Amino acid sequence: MSGLETIKRFFAVPDDPDLVQAQARAFSRQVPLMYGILLVNSLVLAATHSYAPNLLRLFVPGALALVCVIRIVMWLRARDRPISHEKARRILVSAVFVAAILGIGFSSWALSLYPYGNAYQQSHVAFYMGLTGICCVFCLMHLRAAATVVALCVVIPFTGVFVISGNPVFGALALNFVLVVAGLMSILFGNYRDFGALVASRAAMERKQVETQRLSDENNRLANMDSLTGLPNRRSFDRQLNETLAAAQAAGNTIAVARLDLDSFKAINETFGQITGDRVLAEVARRLMALRKADTFVARLGADNYALIMQGELHEASLRTRGEVLSNAMRLSFDLPNAIIHLSASLGFATSRPGDTAEMLYDRADYATSIAKHEARGTAVIFSERHAKEISKVRTLEHALRTANLDEEIHILFQPQFDIALNRTTGYEVLARWRSPTLGNVSPTEFIPMAERIGMISKITQTVLRKALAASVRLPKSLRLSVNLSAHDLASITAIGAIVAMVTRAGTPCRIDFEITETAVMRDMNQANEALLSLLALGSRIALDDFGTGHSSLTHVQKLPLDRIKVDRSFVAEVTTDPTSRAIIKTTVDLCRNLGISCVFEGIETEQQLDALLGLGGTVMQGYLFGKPMTEEMVIEQLSGERKGWQAHRNQIFGAAS
Ligand code: C2E
Ligand code: CA
Ligand code: CA
Q1: Which of 8-17, 409-418, 561-570 shows the lowest per-residue confidence on average (mean pLDDT)?
Q2: Quick one: 482 and 569 in the same domain?
Q3: Which numbered ligand comes closest to the C-alpha of 485?
Q4: Are residues 577 and 449 in the same domain?
Q5: Of 167, 200, 376, 386, which one has the fewest beta carbons inside 10 Å?
Q6: Which CATH number do you get for residue 269?
């Protein structure tokens, strides 16, 4: 770099915009003080030079003072205004020129007074120039170029005039002044460098902060958004529900929560593939957003579950209308690139009550949705008093079951399974009964699903099995007892282990069979197969219960180590009236024959049903016609009667306990 260029760069405005801004801000803060000092010092100097001509004593300092006052006022007024980058550059450029003009102007004026004063007054001129010059350089410390210009404009004439004066004292003064200003400038340049570095590091830090904030905002957005649909996610919904509910409660208002569950969405995924499934989910989100009112919050909670938080008009009729609008919107066809899909959605609404927590409100909407799913698929259900009573009944039952003494409260009944070919009862299905000391008899259709839900089913299975094993010792050796297993028993290695251990402990030969359902097996085919093999190894037989009501995947059925299939009683009930039921029964009988396993019919209540089933090729029969679930004593009594042939004792059987 040439010397000229170095000088040009030295006096040029820096490239760094942050530094330019910082310099302009610092300058504009300090410049009024500089003008103030200049003004006062100049007036005092003018006052001490009473013999000088009026031009130098009054007019010139007056004009300079006026300039100072104008500049002070101007800078003070501009103090709090934001400075744009362009303005900052302009300030820095003009500061150098103004510094040169004022430096030369004030120095020339001060030196022009020199010839008119005595030794004291001349000393005052020297003192004024030195001190005021240093002061101004200090005030301009953030503007290297302007400070240097001022220093030069003062030092050069000062040294020149005082050295030429021939007075050794003034000569020494000039030397001192040059040294002080040189030292001052070197300190100032050092400070200027530090200032530049500080500004640069602060700007870098601010940029980093902005970037960190941006990343954290982005993270926050992603953490609260469902990426597939762009809707707020579960976390965001929970927070919003808490906030909206709290605000509504504080204002004495109510809000409503709606849950929307697509019906049979799993089937869409399985049939059309996940990409199409995703498109459906995104379209559902779009429809919900298009239909929402301005104050409605829509979220996707996961899978095919959506939720809405609603405010405003929330009485039953208005909720019903909203429910209809939403469920109708879901019924419109989904025209996708590779498929036209039709589906429906079940909705549940609940409105807030005083003292509600977000969880309580959500749970009610959730309950209403499950009611819609089971009782009014594809429509909206509004949580009502009836639902509240049901929930409270379920809670009471749950509590009673959790605290029940299972050994005392659970007992078992036996329902005969009659083999037509052998013309005798070959076994009994073991059915659990619960008599709660507080609630009385509770139906297994109520307490078994509940025990599954609250994780108590394995305990119940073990209680039933223990009692069945004890009864089997007292019953004739030719009879087998069939115990029902639930999905949880099959899915848990520990539960199966406990069952195997109990049967093994009871000794051989094993007379316990097990009934399992298709749904239980489908959950985890591999684990279910393992479990079934360990039961088979005991010498137990396995029956597939409620056949025809679950997944009914024949390929799966063929893969399982089954000994019998039990045709569900819903088909048996319709065997005399419904050709479809008859056809299904016929196919199942053929399937069993092909697989070499036996076929059991359950729920036979009438002789007509029995005749129809016999015509279709059924062999093992179970139902009220052959015996209701009965106590162990009744079993023994029935068996003694049966020796005379079951036809003769059918009437006696009918009167059994249930
Ligand atoms: P399931 O295994 O299908 O049991 C047969 C059910 O049908 C029994 O109801 C029985 O009483 C009833 N039933 C039998 N014959 C007839 C008939 O001719 N007509 C009519 N209408 N019903 C008949 P229950 O005892 O109320 O049991 C209901 C369900 O509870 C059972 O259905 C089974 O799924 C479950 N369950 C009962 N005991 C146990 C158990 O110990 N463990 C497990 N896991 N589940 C059990
Ligand atoms: Ca059963
Ligand atoms: Ca059954």
Answers
A1: 8-17
A2: no
A3: 1
A4: no
A5: 386
A6: 3.30.70.270
Mean pLDDT of 128-138: 91
**pLDDT, tens digit, 9 for 90 and up, residues 42-101:** 999 999 998 899 999 999 999 989 999 999 999 898 888 888 889 999 999 999 999 999
Q: How many domains does the chain have?
A: 4
Active-site residue, 602 included: yes
Ligand 1 atom showing the smallest separation from residue 625 Cα? 18
- Cα angle, residue 467 at apex, residues 463 and 473 outer, rounded to 5°: 150
Residue whose CB lies within 8 A of the most ligand 1 atoms, among 401, 412, 448, 606, for a mutation test: 448
Residue 567 phi/psi, 5° resolution?
-75, 130
Best CA proximity match to 496, nearest among 470, 535, 526, 453: 535
pLDDT of amino acid 551: 61
Secondary element (H or E) of residue 425: strand 424-436
Residue 268, token pair as written in the block: 């869409």
228 lies in some domain = no
If asked whether residues 538 and 578 sit together in one domain, one would say no
Phi and psi, residue 302, nearest 5°: 140, 160
**How many CB atoms are closer than 10 A to CB 57?**
19
- For position 555, what pLDDT does the model report? 67
Do 416 and 335 sit in the same domain of this protein? no
pTM of the full structure: 0.62
| Neighbouring residues of 122: CB distance < 8 A, sequence distance ≥ 6 | 114, 170
Is there a single domain that holds both residue 474 and residue 342? no
Find the domain containing 306 and state its range: 234-383
